[in-house]
Amino acid sequence: MLRSQSTRKLKRQWGTERHSTPLSIFHDKPSTRKMAYGGLAIIMTIGFWIAYVISTIIKEYFKGPITYQFVMESLGYLLIVTLLTFSALMYLIARQGALQRFSKHVRIPRADIDRYLEKNQPKVTVLIPSYDEEPEVVRKTLLSAALQEYPHIRIVLLLDDAPYPKDPAASDRLNATRQLVKEINDLFAAPRQLFESKLTEYLSELESSSHIRPEITKELAEHYAWAADWLDQLVNKEEIGDHVGEFFADEVVGGLSSELRLVYKALLASYNEKVSIPVNRISQLYKRLTWIFNTELDIFERKKFASLSHEPNKAMNLNSYIGLMGRTFDQVETPDGPILVPATEIQNGRNITFPDSEFVLTLDADSILRPGYCLRLVYFLQQPDNVRVAVVQTPYSSFRGAATRIERIAGATTDIQHILHQGMTYYNATFWVGANAIIRKSALEQISETEWVGNFEIRRYIQDRTVIEDTESSVDLAKHDWTLINYPERLSYSATPPDFGSLIVQRRRWANGGLIILPKLWSLVRNRKKQGNTVSKTEILIRVNYLASISWASFGLLFMLAYPIDGRLLSPLVIFAALPYFLAMSSDLKYCNYKRSDVFRIYGFNLILLPVNLAGVLTSIQQALSAQKIPFARTPKIKDRTVSPMLYVISPHLIIGISLVILWRGIMLENWGNAAFAAFNVITATWAVVEFIGIKNSVVDVWLGIKNWLYVPVKKKQKDQEKEHAQSLDWQAILYHGDAGMRLSNNASNQSTLTTLTPHVEEKEVVHS
């Protein structure tokens, strides 16, 4: 298959993947032996921990007089070992749950789904929040959503960039992103009109005649061949700049093309063999072609409206639009910008109506869906046993064929997490992973909160207290007796940070917020008890570990790295308790087509991310004490390298230096346990710094950090500021608001102000018709 190649590519590093073949959609059914080993690993972990406590800690207390220092060291070390062992145990338990689910999963035949959706077609609205994304990234996401084979689907791009940027480059990028919606609508117009007309012709013939012509099967086959050729032409026009582009072309567009061509061959074979296909199946196959191309795309920018929240986070971007769905508004011009007022009279062409739907599909602007995602997950939600399922998702997998070593290892951790999330569903401990999900809108309405800011109603369906809004909303839904499910297939994919700088932004955000959400678990337990439902201990333990493990693991590892533990507390039993965890992870890496030895690379990877995780945890504690929201930090996903903050570049080198000191001290005191652990940390951390950060990049980032630290911007004089303020006086706001208008104008640049003044009134436009 010929494809145009982009001239701009990332330089591939040594030691990365040369292939871009993704993991299979279906999980292999685990063998009985593998499941037995998984159960044995759980027993061994618990057994070795108990043996350590008895043979080392308790034994030392009975041996004779002990000092206060030893008591404190032993209690602290035991606490750390216990918490780390607990996290390892939760990994093994979740993994075992995943194996159980994989062994029982049976894929629903496509004919059964088509038969159901022919008569039951709940509407779906796809919401794609986007902020400062590259147009080519958003385009792939939009197309993957547009190619979902679903009867009624509406896609809305929620642009959250400043609507009128002064920077020419930002303005060009924003306009290019806006143009994508029209381009894709125009792209799908021809096949949509063609197959709608063919379906109409077929239905007319079906009504006028009691039987179907044998040739109808051949004609239908030709329609499928035409659709496959159209998709092939789309692939040929794609610019394949990286492994993400290859996945989109080969697995999304090319995968759908291959599936349609298989249907073409099957229909043609049935025609040649003179076998009559049932009329209802012919009808379903005709409708399938219209489902593929019958897509409506729209765009919405909340920051164009002064009546909507401008909180700088993804949650409020989604909330702003969800709060408008199913309602009709009038647009009223004010000095602060347009506002949306509930319509008192419906007038065609003058109101703005936001269509409603039963389900909402949230999709990050850098994520890609396989064509069957929406079809299968909505069918799952519509089953009678799933009426209390609020969220169904497929935890995203990584794109294979990464050009950098750090992206490859970060992708490995992503694929491991996919398995663990599948296991969490087995114990009813699912957390919504915000990159993609289909959500029952009625469930969101049940957990929604309403507040008034000025004269404007603000609705919160998804909590925005923390930057991990999906995690907190998961607990809110569970409190109201809703269930969340991870569908046991790989149907969604998301980009992984390609360099250390962008990875810092992502992992620092992930580490922030868990401690704040943790108290909600206790109210979850109380609510379940009031409803007469019990919460299993396993569910509670898995949820606690998910929310808090990054905190105790970070502080615990820091303590073990920096503090020379008394040799009497060290024992091989600690290593034996951790060994099942590492063996299980190496097995999972092999299962995901990585190397077993990558388990050591992941350890070093986590070592250099220790300062990042600690910063996220400390920020979470700061937020809990100050009750102030932390701004959402978007993960940069660009082709050029993201500069790392100097602190996070220097910290891994400090970890190596501290470990060297502990190694030298352990050798001098013949404390061989400490020496061995320190030596292992030196080797893995040094390897991680060289391979994942790079010596050259470290020098450059430190130099830029020092330069920015020494640079002091020149402040404008007070007279100049007063002069500029007088020139920027907003007379419209004063006449509209009165004296308050002056104060509002002065505070227009404040992010906490809800109604933000818009500088270019003449550029405002209605974004819906």
Protein topology:
Elements lengths: L3 E2 L26 H32 L4 H37 L5 H10 L4 E7 L4 H12 L6 E7 L8 H41 L6 H23 L1 E2 L2 H30 L6 H15 L1 E6 L13 H9 L4 E6 L6 E4 L9 E3 L4 E5 L3 E3 L3 H9 L7 E5 L3 E2 L6 H22 L9 E5 H6 L2 E5 L2 E5 L8 H11 L3 E4 L5 E3 L5 H11 L3 H4 L2 H11 L6 H26 L9 H20 L6 H11 L1 H17 L19 H23 L3 H22 L1 H16 L7 H10 L3 H7 L1 H8 L23
Parallel strand pairs: 1-4, 2-3, 2-9, 3-5, 11-16, 12-17
Antiparallel strand pairs: 6-7, 6-8, 9-13, 10-17, 11-13, 14-15
Give a verbal description of the structure.
The structure is a single chain. The protein has 769 residues and is of the alpha/beta class. It folds into 3 domains: 32-104 and 505-708, no CATH class; 127-501, Spore Coat Polysaccharide Biosynthesis Protein SpsA, Chain A (Alpha-Beta Complex), CATH 3.90.550; 718-763, no CATH class. 58% of the residues lie in helices and 10% in strands. It contains 26 helices and 17 strands. The protein has a 7-stranded mixed β-sheet, with helices on both faces. A 3-stranded antiparallel β-sheet has the order 7-6-8, with no helix packed on it. The radius of gyration is 29 Å and the shape is globular.
